[in-house]
Amino acid sequence: MKNILMNTEMTKAILDGRKVQFREVLNDMYQNCYQIKKAVSGNFQCRELIGDEDIWMTEKPKYKNGDVLQVVEEYEMCMSDSSEDELFERDTNIFLKITNVRVEKLQDMHVQDIKKEGIQTLPPTDGYHSRFSNGKKIFIEPFPSFINLWNKTAPKGYKWDDNPYVFVYEFERINND
Predict the structure, then answer these.
(1) How many other CB atoms are found less than 10 A from the CB of residue 9?
(2) Domain tally, the chain
(3) Could you tell me the residue range of the domain that residue 52 belongs to?
(4) For a 10 Å CB count at each end of the chain, is N or C smaller?
């Protein structure tokens, strides 16, 4: 069994049944591909022009259909002897089974995908795109909300505006009996 790290907000979204999908950036060497296709093996083939040569490379997803993952929750805690929050991890009793894997450019996602990522939005009430609640910015529309979350967690070079290739993993929550 493999582990997958999720923050508290996304762990709650899984428990609420809102999160059934997550994304992971492809290896850097595959970001210049101009064609990607899924092989029968479940791996993905990437076509790239290097110099005058047209080359096919294979990228293996971290998770495959049928893999069972245990969620490890990452959470912040303010320590009494420190003014800064510290990050901790803890195992959960949440298990996910991968049901589908695909590759796409990050910006090719649809509103339905954002909802499957567990993003909650608020109905517009005053014409603004976001509000503040308990000191946190809450977006009303799905795309700004997802873009904000993605850009907070993605490393440099893989932000929304960079539009990297990503693995899209769909899953279902299961009991690990």
Answers:
(1) 14
(2) 1
(3) 2-111+161-174
(4) C
